[in-house]
Amino acid sequence: MKKLVSLILCLCFLFVLAGCGGSVTTDDSAINIGVIQLAEHPALDQSYEGFMQALKDAGVDAQVELKNAQGDPSNCETIVNKFVNDQVDLILAIATNAAQAAANATDTIPVVLTAVTDPEFSGLVDSNEHPGHNVTGTSDLTPVEAQIDLLKEILPDAQNVAILFNGAEDNSIFQADMAEKAIAANGMKSTRVSVSELNQIQSIVESLVGKVDAIYIPTDNLLAEGMATVTMITNENKIPVIVGEEGQVVNGGLATYGLSYFNLGYKAGEMAVEILNGANPADMAIGYLPAEDCELIINMETAKELGLTIPDTVLNRARKINE
């Protein structure tokens, strides 16, 4: 009798397990996404937020693990190796150094990048039109020429412009090259000034006081993180700074033609959804935001601190912050 009761109990237990089979396998079938973000600053944060919104809008139920490298490229390798070991289904890499670390760590897990100016120039894809491998995503190439034209429009008498950028980041080198040509095309002289660490920013910017009429900073992750240090010096010394994106304006830069990093991340999220549904990243061209996603933004508090009168031709088409 005892054996019969035990057998009946065992059979009941097996039936219960069978009835719960769907929930037992949930963890195994869940979509896992690893996100590596190079640094914490508004543009990159907005890229992540846009990506997550795209997943939500598409109804993708994913477990997402966000890791921040705190601006240190050496941390990127450790983070992506963990994602590879965890066998995540997809990696989102935000900014150039993060994307390079992910691309070097795996040739099988799909990597979607965002906030990378030129993936081809950075060695991440065979070409921007035909990536060719497991990496694709969205470029944050901004209208550098238009930003330099804006500098000249606001400061028609400017002659000497410093291009301040991180010489260790391919993204920044690419834009510095573009800016140098645009400055020359506007009849001005340029000086390339490279910085590679946050603690160098103050002394390097101070060395430019009295030597330049303006400074141009592209969408540079290091300098975006240290923008408050830059503008603490430049605004006090009446040096206007034209920048690559809105977050840098919010932190004291004078003006930009900037794109929406939220929209950029959203577009990357849409591409990720396609990949999760079976699309091959090798065949997905790098995505760009349309020109209408770029916006002229001016920090009016900075203009006042600099003692500048912004031309009406600029003000009439600008979104003004800190009025």
Explain how this protein is built.
45% of the residues lie in helices and 20% in strands. It has 323 residues and is α/β, with parallel strands linked by helices. The protein folds into two domains: 31-140 and 260-292, Rossmann fold (3-Layer(aba) Sandwich), CATH 3.40.50; 144-259 and 294-321, Response regulator (Rossmann fold, 3-Layer(aba) Sandwich), CATH 3.40.50. The chain has a five-stranded parallel β-sheet with strand order 2-1-3-4-5, with helices on both faces. A four-stranded parallel β-sheet has the order 7-6-8-9. Helix 4 (42-57) packs across helix 13 and helix 5 packs across helix 6. The longest helix has 18 residues, at 2-19. It is elongated and about 60 Å long.
Task: Give the SSE layout.
Layout lengths: L1 H18 L1 H4 L1 H4 L1 E7 L4 H16 L4 E7 L4 H13 L4 E5 L1 H10 L5 E6 L18 E5 L4 H11 L5 E6 L4 H16 L3 E6 L6 H6 L7 E4 L3 H5 L1 H10 L4 E3 L2 H5 L4 E5 L1 H16 L17 E6 H7 L5 H4 L3 E3 L2
Parallel strand pairs: 1-2, 1-3, 3-4, 4-5, 6-7, 6-8, 8-9, 11-12
Antiparallel strand pairs: 10-11
Helix pairs in contact: 4-13, 5-6, 7-8
Report the structural category: alpha/beta
- When the domains are counted, the total is 2
Shape verdict:
elongated
Low-pLDDT segments: 1-28
Helicity range: 40-55%
The CATH class name of the largest domain reads Alpha Beta
Mean pLDDT, to the nearest integer, reads 91
Order of helices and strands: HHHEHEHEHEEHEHEHEHHEHEHEHHE
